[in-house]
Amino acid sequence: MMSTLPSASGSPHAPTPSQPADITQITSSKVHMGANGAPKREPGRQRPSAALPNETLLRWLRDMILIREFENRCAQAYQQAKIGGFCHLYIGQEALAVGTIGCLNHDDPIVTAYRDHGHALARGMSPRACMAEMFGRLAGCAKGKGGSMHMFDKPNWMFGGHGIVGAQTPLGAGLAFAAKYEVEVMRRTVDGGPARRKVALCYLGDGALNQGALHEAMNLAGLWDLPVIYIVENNRYSMGTAIERGTTMAHDLTAKAAAYGIEGVRIDGMDILNIYDQFKPLVDRCREQSRPAFVDLLTYRYQGHSMSDPQKYRKKEEVETVRQRDSIELLSQHLMAERRCLSESRLQEMIDECKAAAMDALTFAETAPAPEAAAELYSDVYVNPQPGLSPLREYHQGAKNPLL
Amino acid sequence: MPRTKQQIEKGLTLVDAINEALAQEMERDERVVCLGEDVGLNGGVFRVTEGLQKRFGADRVIDSPLAESGIMGTSVGLAMAGMRPVPEIQFEGFLGPAYDQLTSHAARFRNRTRGAITCPLTVRVPWGGGIHAPEFHSDSPEAIYVHTPGLKVVVAATPTDAKGLLTAAIRDPDPVVFFEPKRVYRSFREQVPEEQYEIPLGKARIVSEGSDVTVITWGANVFQCLEALDKLPEDLSVELIDLRTLSPLDFDTVCASAEKTGRVVVVQEAPKTCSLAAEIGMTVMEKCFLHLQAPVQRVCGYDTVMPYAKLELEYLPNADRIAEAIQQVAAY
Fold it and tell me: pTM of the entire structure?
């Protein structure tokens, strides 16, 4: 497979896109941007999302509302000092995780950075396991060891949750490499099952654009034809640094992909239907052709970078402007006005259900048992048992991982 | 690959043994892939992977650009997905750019996920001085990786050990840093079993038994120590231990010997301060204090940057320095 010379064909790169590169400049939900910002829709041709059944869109809406309600509860718990360390909320970006993951097969691997609760929930992690992890409880997805930034869910093909900015990007290349190797060399999975073509999604923040690891990873992905899609969750701010203050070519990030022979696309990430319309064909192409891609996915976080962010870098009006196109609002409007499959009362029920699920997760996490030091502190550093690790030189087998 | 006439008659070099271990394990397990700059077409910077690409194809012996963070990070991703990657980093000094992936990711996934996701990769790294190369090409940074929970660290000094330890390392469920002392890559040959075998990680080798002084070392320094033994009075009986695995470290063997002799010398190429020799000395003091007849001595590199060729022999522990330390400890 790798012996095939890379095509490095990518899409032809147009240097200056005609559409806004900034989510705060998009005011109409009718804006759909194609590759490099060029309007894509051909007149009379149906949008891919039009073929999606109502149930799918209603499920997405519910997932987005659940993430928002879950994050509201996280904020509350953090302020009450029940969650340790740091906490990065996904509020505002819900359509991105739900929409992109909605384009995948169940066994397509994903990997992301530290703002990872949304991806975990969108991938199917139970809110209880997610919240308990933040509370450091044994019932958490990593048995309370990883915390907010380290959501792992192997059965749902979620490979973290990573705290070092940009460092997850070569992992995405490796996950794609393994999937390609299974199909093209082993012709079976590493577990002996039938292999099928996969696409790995590797999410990164716009701040990670400036990290070296990404550029090594994109070069390798382009060189080796790895089916990995780098998704920049471009929420305009790397902590407190606006993208144009820290990143060259901020007006056209796809130029960075072009440098590695990778197809680059910019997508408005507040409109989940638009995400699907543009991202699903891209996923299909990458899967079929075994090629990488790069997506500048415009989004916005309504809250601060973390829970302690004075937000001196933006005005409240800017947040308000983007909230006019809130992703949950856009989808519910579409389902009510155009699809006519959702009523005000059903929407309210859905919100109430999600609030209850978030509350249930919180209650569960609060009352779940904490890890026992004797059993958990010295285990799983190396393969168990690892004699001599405890100062007592006694080894205690830890409890079984709930996800295994 | 069948052995050459020279290999059959005179035995294998360290390079031959590593190559054979890789080939046999790739033959046995399709999940094993090698990757790194020039490992394929060119057979590796030290020709350790010579012939492997021809035999197993470019899909399994993969030439990469020189991009250590990318090589290591991609290997981490492969390992997370259930593969057995064996990346090569060309020199120990080049671990710097790969450090983040190795220590923040490979070392910690098992713990961070409580065993749900593991990272069974083996990174091969030519290591140590003695080849007249400058810094980055002659350093001994093993203490940094021994200090990192979650990594296993191996240094093979002989062809027989190299083959068995590398086979065990690739099969090990944890990430292993496999240091190859380049000074002895081709310096001698020995007969090595042709079939596959494992030498368990975490077990030291007693090179020579003795009763008066314990000398603990690893890597190419084993041979400087053997040379030093020839310089000692005949009635001085030295037990020489080659640690072989630095993490987990075989303190059972170390302490049993220290309790027997009561006199310990640790020999390493790395700078002295905060080194593995310091850790070994301290542990011997903690565990064997009442048995000690003399303070533990260290023969190390100096707390300087590894010097270039002409000063290299001044820096590296040699037989004279080691013999002197042994005699001082014996006479204490």
Answer: 0.92
